[in-house]
Amino acid sequence: MASLALLTWTFVWLSFLCVGGGLGVIPEMERQAVTVHRWLSAREFVDGYTLAQLTPGPNMLIAVFVGDRAHGLLGALLAGLAMFAPTSVLAIVVSHHWQQWRRRPWAVIAERALVPVGVGLMAGGVYTLGRTAIHDLTTAALAALAALAVATDRVPPVLAILSAGLIGWLLWR
Amino acid sequence: MRQVSLLRLIVVFAWTGISSLGGGRSAYFHEALVRRRRLISHDEFVQDFTLSQVLPGPNFSNLAVVLGYRLAGFAGGFWGLLAVVVPGALILLAAGALYAGGAFGATAALLMRGLSAGVVGLVAVTSLRIVHGSLRGLRAVVVALLTFVAVGPLRLPTVAVVLVMVAVSVALQWGAGAGAAAGPLATDSAAGSALPDEEA
Questions:
Q1: Is B101 on the interface with A (CB under 8 A)?
Q2: Could A91 and B143 be called an inter-chain contact, meaning their C-beta atoms sit closer than 8 Å?
Q3: Residue A158 falls within a domain, yes or no?
Q4: Is this model's pTM higher than 0.90 or not?
Q5: What proportions of chain A, in percent to the nearest 5, are helix, strand and coil?
Q6: Which of A6, A43, B149, B177 is the Cys-Cys partner for B181 at CB 3.0 to 4.6 Å?
Q7: pLDDT at B76 over 90
Q8: Do A119 and B147 lie within an 8 Å CB cutoff?
Q9: pLDDT over 90 at A167, yes or no
């Protein structure tokens, strides 16, 4: 019980750290799930993010994956609810009032102030995933290859990722 | 706000959620609601998109909630959220069960190494695109850089970093934007020109 409550509470406050993109919360989520609570290994965490990226829906479904690894289906349900429900209530409340608020000076300043912090957190997310996923020249080359493919805008992201997986497998098997 | 039937909303949102694989997920909503079905205008979409980025929380689900609210009120927000989250959650749980059950043997473990390297390449590009479109001025660059170093290489707790950096950032923007603050949201035009990819 206590550990389920801890899992739920952790994802509630993590959800409010998703500022300007879910990727921004990845450094802290990894710290909590891997280092602090040991719900799963760093490798499993990166694999979970990869699966969440390859399956449909928001990438923050990684919460469901972590919850499942920590406490099975109930853990998955609670982590998912914790990640999506509270911030969605906030979104609907703000959305309800936003027409009147959005042009006020404090709203403009708040937005301008939050954007760079969100960008920094997001870059931290890329770094955190890379720290585990990129450990030699081959994985670095595969990441660069996928990045180049995506940057052309002609290769669907899923295809770029699957190709990196396939090339890696052919090289390592 | 206009009224779209809940059933139609659920079908459209669920399909958008299921088909939004890989990256550029908000762009799928733009395609589905603005370009293909003309349920909302481009300007309305950009406004909702900006809001979903600024609000805390996974921003793909935020966008679904805000768009759902615009289309069908509170019920629209609720069902819009469920429609984009639940199918993906079930699919991920199935994949997670295979992963835990050892179906990811030695072969799949090697495959995952390449796949996760590929994911890093993807998120690096999509993040760079957002950085490119959203950082204006030296102050913003400095704030973003300090935040990155703190949570990335230094592995400092994000809560503390966010509290400090938001305070610093507000102070800097307050100093910089006294004159310019009267205009509409600055990111409207940026988000409208090229919907940046966000990975939530």
A1: no
A2: no
A3: no
A4: no
A5: 85, 0, 15
A6: B177
A7: yes
A8: yes
A9: yes
In sequence order, which ranges of B55-136 are alpha helices (DSSP H)? Answer: 59-100, 106-134
The verdict on a CB contact (< 8 Å) between B21 and A157 is: yes
Q: Is B9 helix (H, G, I), strand (E, B) or coil?
A: helix
Paired tokens of A124: 């931290």
Structural domain count of chain B: 1
Alpha helices in B135-157 (DSSP H): 137-151
**Do B174 and A106 form a contact (C-beta atoms < 8 A)?**
no
Range of the domain at B63: 1-103
All residues of chain A having their beta carbon less than 8 Å from the beta carbon of residue B89 are: 57, 61, 64, 76, 80
Q: Please name which of A122, A103, A104 lies closest in space to residue A114, comparing C-alpha atoms.
A: A122
Measured between CA atoms, the residue of chain B closest to residue A110 is B170
Q: Which residue is listed with tokens 């090339």?
A: A167
Residue B120 lies in a domain: no
Most B CBs within 10 A among A61, A109, A162, hence the mutation to make, goes to A61
Which residue matches tokens 């994949």? B95
What value of ipTM does the predicted structure carry? Answer: 0.82
CB contact under 8 A, B21 and A56: yes
CB B82 within 8 A of CB B90: no
Residue A94 lies in a domain: yes
The answer as to whether B53 is a domain residue is yes
